[in-house]
Amino acid sequence: MPELCCAGRRWQVATASNLLDALIQGGVPVPSGCRAGSCHACLVRCLEGEPHDLQPDLLRPEQRHAGWRLACQCRVEGDLSLEVFDPRRDGLAARVESLEWLGSSVLRLRVLPERPLRYRAGQHLLLWTATGVARPYSLASLPDDDPWLEFHIDCSRPGAFSDFARQLRPGDLLRLGELHGGALHYEREWAERPLLLLAAGTGLGPLWGVLRESLRQGHRGPIRLLHTCRDGHYLKEPLQALAQTHDNLQLEWIGADGRDRMLDTLRPTSRRDVALVCGSPSFIEACARRLYLAGLPRGQIFGDAFIRANRGDVP
């Protein structure tokens, strides 16, 4: 049976065991969220040995060369010596710049990293608390224009990170983990094409960044943004201000009672539309299905789903 060595422990596991499960069963506290390779919370570094990686393309080549693997996507085929991602050693320190409630349940968190972070609008970043709670959030800030990194945190329900975020104060220290790309982005070649931005709840956060990126690059095609939520449209005023200065931006506000009707009537304006969707997996699936059935090619529909907690490992 293969032997694992990690965090000062040695133990045997069954061949072909999932690496994340084997580490947790061995008493190594590895955070995890999606178990699909999306959140990047379960990063481990291989010091000796190599697991069977089912999704090698989920990490950048330089990360893989440095030995990093996503434990949830690996199977144990032989002896392994590993170390778990340590935010104090491997992460980037950041100070809380400001906190502001946008409505009753959305907390806008702005942090200043100790050194500049290169990213693009719509990417995800893993946030770590001092107690080792890790949670991936989409960036709502605009690279180069905003001096801070901005996140919109849904605090409508209890959660280890959202409960922690409620207690934060300016000047508090956080650690930033893995930065990775999601599906939401803006391409220069879309400049003349219609953009359809569909957001549910705080799915508006990354689309707020992508929208501003498109306008900064001088997008000339029509942009239609629809936001559906239960507790109020928390960016309504700044979005309306943008619409007043950009004639090609159209805004639509949909309450919880109008969501099904919106989905039933959702249509692209043409087969040239590019659709960016962010929200729960069910919201993205419903939007993508409706748009595809209405004639929009799948390759022009980009969706990022919220990652929910997995057995409490990541809130």
UniProtKB/TrEMBL annotation:
- Domain FAD-binding FR-type as annotated: residue spans: 89-187
Q: What is this protein called?
A: Iron-sulfur-binding ferredoxin reductase
Per the database record, which ranges form the 2Fe-2S ferredoxin-type domain? 1-88
Cofactor(s) needed for function:
[2Fe-2S] cluster
Q: Which organism is it from?
A: Stutzerimonas frequens
Q: Which domain of life is it from?
A: Bacteria
